[in-house]
Amino acid sequence: MTDPQEMLRRAGLKVTPQRLEIYEMLLQTRAHPGAQEVYEVVKEKLPSISFNTVYATLLSLQEKGLIQRLDVGQGRDRFDANTRSHVHLVCQQCGRVDDFGDSTPACISELLAEVRAKSRWKIADGTFTAYGYCPECRRAKDTEGPGR
């Protein structure tokens, strides 16, 4: 099912113009925006929307399982409409967040299975985040040369 209105309804959410615009924006990006970025994009189409409405909507979409809220160690939440378990790559220089593949690699699935089996925790899901430098930042670092 890929109809955003139907997905909102099935999650038990009323389809409002604000909720639909926010959800569609997230479905159309792979950029993992923060709440402020979502607000700025949505405000172009819905000028009267408030930041508080955007943030509350993001939290309700996350609570209903329609989006993921990510904490990748940058002091702010990021949001992702890809709710399947998958790997995130985070640039330590510019903060860019990319997905690696469409689903969790087998080795991470195996690790989660082992954690479930050997811990006394009830593990619902797990994520893996790799930190490094995106291609653009790597190029910039490489062109700086040694000693700079």
Structure in words:
The chain is of the alpha+beta class and 148 residues long. It folds into two domains: 1-83, Orthogonal Bundle (Arc Repressor Mutant, subunit A); 84-148, 2-Layer Sandwich (Dna Ligase, domain 1). Helix content is 44%, strand content 15%. The protein is built from six helices and five strands. A hairpin with a 5-residue loop joins strand 3 and strand 4 (97-100). Helix 2 crosses helix 3 and helix 3 packs across helix 4 (51-63).
CATH superfamily of the largest domain: Winged helix-like DNA-binding domain superfamily/Winged helix DNA-binding domain
Mean pLDDT over the residues:
90
Give the uncertain stretches in residue-range form: none
Q: Compute the number of helices.
A: 6
Beta strands, count: 5
SSE pattern: HHHHEEEEHEH
Keywords: DNA-binding, Metal-binding, Repressor, Transcription, Transcription regulation, Zinc
Cofactor: Zn(2+)
Family: Belongs to the Fur family.
Binding site for Zn(2+): 91, 94, 134, 137
Q: What attributes characterize this protein structure?
A:
148 residues; alpha+beta; Arc Repressor Mutant, subunit A; Dna Ligase, domain 1; 2 domains; 3-stranded mixed β-sheet; two-stranded antiparallel ribbon; 6 helices; 5 strands; 44% helix; flat
